[in-house]
Amino acid sequence: MRCSFHDDYVVDLPPGHAFPMRKFVLLRDILLREGLAAPGDVIAPPEADWDLLALAHSRAYLDALRDGTLDAAAVRRLGLPWSPALVRRSRRATMGTLLAARNALRDGVAANLAGGTHHACHGHGEGYCVINDVVVAIRALRSEGGPRRALVIDLDVHHGNGTAELLAGDRDAFTFSMHGANNFPLRKPPSSLDVPLPDRMGDDEYLRTLAVHLPAVIDRSRPGVAFYLAGVDVVAGDRFGRLSLTRAGLRARDRLVLRSLGERGIPAVLVLSGGYAATPELTADLHAEAHRAAAEPDVAALLAGCGRHARA
To answer: Over the stretch 186-209, which tens digit does the pLDDT of each residue have?
Structure first.
C-alpha cells in the first residue's frame, strides 16, 4: 500500500505533553518491518500551499497560523504550542491526505500516516487538530476533476465536529460519525449521520452497531471515494477514550469497514485520527491494525479491484 509520510510529521512538544507525537514515525517503522509497505511505497508529501488550505479555512485563521499571531486563547484551544515546525507539519500532513486520495483512486486503497484532524474548524483549530485535511482533500479532488461524491467514515472515539461543520449543506459529501456520546467535544454539530455510543461499550455491541449502520451509509451516499478516520482511541485503556474495544475488536472493525467499501467498488483513503494508549509504541501498533486488515488477502483483492474500476 502506498503511504504518505515525512519526517516533519514529528515535531518537538513540551515534556509530558499528552499528544503521542512519536507514533507517526513508529507506525512507518512497523509497516516497513512487517512488509505492509515497501520503502518505495512511502511517499514524502510537500507542504500544501496556502490557497489549498483555504479550501477549508478562513484567510484570517491561516494568516495567524502562518505568522505565529494566534492569540493565547486560540493556542489553548488548539492544544499544541505554535511553532514553525508545527505549521510545516500541518501543511505536509494535509498534502499527505490529498496524495493518499489520489493514490487510492489509482490503487483502490492508500494511506496517510497522519491526518484525520477532524476537530479543525473554518476559523480555528482545536483538540490537537490544526488543519482539516480530509475536507481539504475532498474539495481539492473535485477541483482536479475527481469524484464529487465523498464519504467520511469517522470512527474516532471523538465526534468529528470540524468536519461536520465544514461539510454541512454539501449535498455531495456524507459524514458518518460513530463516537462516544459523553466525550469531547461538548458541542457536536450534526453530521449526516451521528451514532453516539455509551461509555464502556465493548466489541460485540460496537461491531453490531457498526454493521447495522455502515452498509446503509455507503449505499445511501454512493461515494466515488471514502475517507476512513480509523481512530484507535476506542480501545480499552485509552487515555481519552471511555470505550472498551479489544485489539481483536479493533481489527474486526477495520476489516468490516474496508471489506464493505471493497465489495462496493469504492476506493478507500486511510487516515489515522486519534489514539492515546499507554505508550506511543502501543498507539502506533494499534494504528497498524488497519493496515494489517487491508493486507488480508480477501480484503486486499477487493480493494485492488476498486483501483482498477477507478482507472477505467
So the answer is: 999 999 999 999 999 999 999 999
